[in-house]
Design goal:
Layout: H1 2-14, H2 28-33, H3 55-60, E1 69-71, E2 82-83, E3 91-94, E4 100-104, E5 118-121, E6 126-129, H4 135-138, E7 151-159, E8 162-167, E9 175-179, E10 184-190, E11 196-203, E12 218-227, E13 233-242, E14 255-264, E15 267-276, E16 289-295, E17 300-302, H5 312-316, E18 323-325, E19 332-341, E20 346-356, H6 375-379, H7 383-392, H8 394-409, H9 415-422, E21 433-435, E22 441-443, H10 455-458, H11 463-467, H12 469-483, H13 503-518, H14 524-542, E23 556-557, E24 561-562, E25 566-567, H15 568-588, H16 591-611, E26 620-621, E27 637-638, H17 643-650, H18 659-673, E28 674-675, H19 679-684, E29 698-699, E30 702-703, H20 720-723, H21 728-740, H22 744-757, H23 781-789, E31 792-794, E32 799-801, E33 810-816, E34 820-829, E35 832-852, E36 862-866, E37 869-870, E38 873-878, E39 881-893, E40 897-902
Parallel strand pairs: 32-35
Antiparallel strand pairs: 1-9, 2-3, 3-4, 5-6, 7-8, 7-13, 9-10, 10-11, 11-12, 12-20, 13-19, 14-15, 14-18, 15-16, 16-20, 17-19, 21-22, 23-24, 25-26, 27-30, 28-29, 31-32, 33-34, 34-35, 35-39, 35-40, 36-37, 36-40, 38-39
Keywords: Signal
Protein name: Glycosyl-hydrolase family 116 catalytic region domain-containing protein
GO molecular function: hydrolase activity, hydrolyzing O-glycosyl compounds
Length: about 900
């Protein structure tokens, strides 16, 4: 009995462990206990094959509908925290009622956005859950508890001989509606009897392909007030912001806070700073500046506002002289505009809230770059300069942000689907990522958890590579092929924070290099890095010791263990990476190495299909000597088993191994791993972390549908807990593959399961949690969007392709390319179809295009125009795939269209 209690204690504390808990750090008694059978090891597989889903509900997933909207009246605003600042500028959340909260801008080393430990009943017992184990999933952070700085907006007007004042906060309105788009949320404030409608659009400057201007430490608010009365109204719109300088550390003897106002051509601002009386006060991690800026010529300035509660005086008081306060006092400034609004008309005021805290994160002491500060610190002297830069370029910066938002959501794809695919890019706008003064990009796995832009985690993320490809190219060139590259070609999977490669991270990095090459305007990136790319590929190929195209060298993988044998998901990932390397070798003219990679791919494809398929799904074949002594997935159904093929569809590698066996594997994942309610499974299969709870749907990482004894090996270790979890990054990867293979129902259901788990009534919709908050792997979500569009792109070759997975007769969706982005649409009518590519930003260089042809008769005539010019071309068809080869490279500029008509 004593031994059993010890085992339970270990499973509670150990199997809920994380990447930082290594087995050799455990005491001897714990290592001995790991040999005992984990509590869920012999549990009977209990995921129903029949998902019993309502067909009408499944059909509804395809409908366009409206943006996901959360309501005050339904108590859905309290958890909402949309990352509202620029990339790599800390974590500032936009709340459901429009107020900013959290303010994780002070170089805080604590793990997660809200470090805490909570108790969770897993169905069998109560366990202690840390932040990296899902504490914020079990008990989400409340916005009301983390309002570090005083900040807000209010409106005031006279109506029926009364002065009416309303703060833009939950308590002051009958109803608030939060439309959860990204990067700009829309918030609507409604009260009966009021003659005005208030609509706020808020978020960061966010312009795909422009990583510099998307990395501004600021949030923009556009406050629009519509007059619905029959009389002219004078509407005052005011905003206030607390001086946040030295907010955390300052004591009274350290100095004074000071607000300083300034007027400019077209805007006014108030900077909050700290006047240090002691030298060390200016070097604290929270030493810096904050600023509120308001667009307008006649802005009322008050450097010392007292807006609690907001009264008439708030909208009329002015003081442009510097104001000071002791550290133990709040010093708040305000800016107000007065606007005459005719009946039926509206007025809009734009505010910019900015911050600047350019101090190194002490937790990253192994990175010398941190001592130089951050990228935004190099560009701007203080928060006032940030605000002034945005104000001076407001039309361009804010205009392009809104243009992207309109372009992205102007689609025939469902709103909820577009939201879930994109919003995880907000991870880049949290303290999960950094861009140092030397321009180097760097990221955690989750906020302040697990260092080193980890290759075996970040390689799942598809979003940044498509939206901000320059950041990915920097990470490949400077880190993976630079700092992390060993002499033998191995890539240290955490760079400065490790000493070993990870085999899945190695293969995934080669695939990302190919993607980064594709999302480039020319071949400079590939040719510059080819010698190191080749070294890395040679290392990966060498891990196939017996030459059968299936890697069999025990190496670290993303499940924080070293597995023995031939493992389908690792074998397949290496095959895909070898295929990508083959294509890269061909492009640089290294035909001998291309042939070597081709041979590896051919053998691997053949042997994987023949030797690692058990009749239903792909498996882990045990090592010939060690057998199943160590932890592994073996004959179980593993979520990543055909991950290599999933990656292949993302970068246009085509079909790798046997199609029918791949589809069988996906059907098995659906049958054995997807649970409409994970509750019964996690109650019997204990030890996993709570990333999906009873009553919620999800795809479990690894299941034992055949109920084999010792299915996961004979020697149980803490990593077994991973097998019983639902980690959204892996689920997104499977969803993207299901979509690519035409299993659209399953793809949408799985994506919707994640979307519903993060409904605002339950937790923050913008924070997909794994090992800590805003987990990088969740950016795999954009891959499902890529698959839904059937999108392929190769910038250096000038090639683009679209093949929508549904609604192909009338389809519209956005796209991003190397130098521009825009909108694609296609329409089919009778024996003709028309494809339109409209560039909204930048340019798009094209030499070849691809589409699908669904009409029964072969195409006989095609016309291609760019602007007003007709372009000569050749058309060919293979099966249903159409290729349009242009007679020359065509540059389509912003505002122009290329139209392809086929009959």
């Amino acid at each position: 009995m004593v031994k059993d209690l010890s085992r339970r204690k270990f499973l509670r504390n150990g199997s809920l462990g994380s990447a930082s808990l290594l087995l050799f750090n455990l005491p001897a008694w714990a290592r001995e206990i790991t040999s005992f059978i984990a509590e869920g090891q012999f549990a009977v597989h209990n995921i129903p094959a029949d998902k019993n889903l309502d067909p009408a509900w499944v059909r509804s997933l395809y409908k366009r509908t409206i943006p996901s909207t959360y309501f005050k009246s339904l108590n859905e605003l309290k958890f909402i925290g949309m990352p509202a600042g620029g990339l790599h500028a800390g974590t500032v959340y936009l709340g459901g009622d429009g107020r900013l909260w959290l303010w994780g801008i002070y170089n805080d080393s604590r793990e997660g956005v809200d470090p805490k430990t909570v108790l969770w009943n897993d169905g069998t017992r109560e366990v202690s859950v840390r932040n990296r184990d899902g504490a914020n999933y079990v008990e989400p952070t409340l916005a009301a508890n983390r309002r570090v700085l005083e900040q807000g907006f209010a409106i005031s007007f006279d109506f029926n001989w009364k002065k009416i004042t309303r703060e833009l906060k939950e308590e002051d309105w009958d109803e608030i509606k939060f439309e959860a788009s990204y990067p700009q949320a829309t918030i609507r404030y409604i009260s009966k009897g009021l003659p005005v409608e208030v609509v706020v659009k808020a978020g960061a400057i966010f312009i795909p392909l422009d990583a510099d201007n998307s990395a501004l430490p600021a949030t923009v608010f556009s406050i629009n007030v519509q007059n619905r009365s029959t009389k002219r109204l004078t509407v005052s719109i005011g905003g206030w912001f607390e001086n946040g300088a030295n907010k955390i550390t300052a004591k009274d003897a350290d100095g004074m806070r000071q607000n300083v106002a300034s007027r400019h051509n077209g805007f006014a601002s108030i900077k909050g700073q700290f006047l240090a009386a002691k030298p060390d006060a200016s070097s604290q991690r929270d030493s810096g500046t904050t600023c509120i800026t308001c667009m307008g010529k006649d802005v009322l300035i008050n450097t010392s506002a007292t807006p609690w509660p907001v009264t008439t005086e708030f909208f009329t008081a002015t003081s442009e002289s510097p104001a000071e306060a002791n550290p133990n006092e709040k010093l708040v400034s305000s800016l107000v505009t007065n606007n005459f609004v005719e009946p039926g008309a509206g007025t809009e005021t734009n505010f910019i809230l900015s911050w600047h805290f350019n101090h190194p994160l002490l937790k990253l002491d192994k990175l010398p770059e941190t001592q130089q500060g951050y990228y935004y610190g190099k560009r701007f002297r203080d928060a006032a300069e940030v605000g002034a830069y945005i104000a001076a370029n407001f039309k361009k910066l804010h205009g392009n942000t809104l243009l992207w938002q309109k372009t992205y959501y102007d689609s025939t794809l469902p709103h909820w689907f577009l939201e879930r695919c994109l919003l995880n890019i907000g991870t880049l706008a949290t303290a999960n990522t950094y861009r140092f003064a030397n321009d180097r990009f760097w990221g955690w796995e989750g906020v302040n958890a697990c260092e080193g832009t980890c290759t075996h985690v970040w390689q799942y993320a598809q979003t940044m590579g498509r939206i901000f490809p320059s950041l990915e190219r920097d990470a490949r060139q400077r880190t993976d092929l630079g700092i992390a590259l060993q002499q033998d070609g191995g890539i240290i999977f955490r760079a400065e924070y490790e000493s070993r490669p990870a085999i899945d991270g190695q293969a995934g990095t080669l695939l990302r290099i190919y993607r980064e090459h594709q999302v480039s305007a020319d071949d400079h990136f590939l040719k510059t890095n080819w010698p190191n790319v080749k070294r890395a590929a040679i290392f990966m190929l060498a891990q196939d010791k017996n030459g059968d195209g299936m890697t069999d060298t025990p190496m670290e993988n993303t499940l924080d263990a070293v597995w023995e044998g031939e493992i389908a998901w690792i074998v397949g990932l290496c095959i895909a990476a070898a295929k990508a390397t083959q294509y890269m070798a061909e492009e640089v003219g290294d035909m001998a190495f291309a042939d070597q990679c081709r041979e590896y791919v051919e053998k691997g494809n053949r042997n994987m299909a023949e030797k690692l398929f058990n009749g239903e799904y792909f498996i882990h074949r045990p090592d010939g000597v060690l057998g199943k002594k160590k932890l592994g997935s073996y004959n179980t159904c593993h979520i990543d088993q055909v991950y290599g093929q999933s990656w292949a569809w993302q970068v246009g590698l085509g079909r790798l191994w046997d199609r029918e066996k791949t589809l069988s594997a996906l059907r098995s994942l659906w049958k054995y791993n997807f649970a409409p309610d994970v509750g019964p499974y996690i109650k019997t299969h204990t030890g996993g972390r709570p990333y999906a709870l009873a009553g919620e749907a999800g795809m479990v990482m690894n299941t034992n549908p055949k109920n084999e004894p010792f299915a996961y090996g004979e020697n149980m270790t803490w990593q077994l807990g991973y097998f019983h979890e639902c980690m959204s990054g892996f689920e997104h990867q499977v969803a993207s593959h299901l979509m690519a293979e035409g299993m659209t129902d399953e793809a949408l259901i799985l994506t919707r399961a994640i979307h519903d788990r993060y409904h605002a009534a339950k937790r923050n919709p913008y924070n997909e949690i794994e090992c800590s908050d805003h987990y990088a792997r969740a950016m795999a979500s954009y891959g499902t969007f890529i698959s839904a569009c059937g999108f392929e792109y190769h910038g250096p070759n000038g090639y683009i392709r679209f093949a929508p997975k549904w609604s192909a007769d009338n389809f519209k969706a956005p796209f991003t390319a190397a130098e521009g982005w825009g909108s694609y649409s296609q329409k089919r009518l009778g024996n003709s179809q028309v494809h339109t590519i409209e560039v909204k930003y930048g340019i798009l260089q094209l030499s070849e295009l691809g589409f699908d042809w669904k009409v029964g008769l072969p195409p006989r005539k095609s016309v291609v125009t760019a602007g007003n010019e007709q372009i000569a071309h050749e058309l060919s068809i293979s099966g249903t795939a159409i290729r349009i080869k242009l007679s020359r490279k065509v540059v389509v500029k912003a505002g122009l269209q290329m139209i392809i008509s086929i009959n």
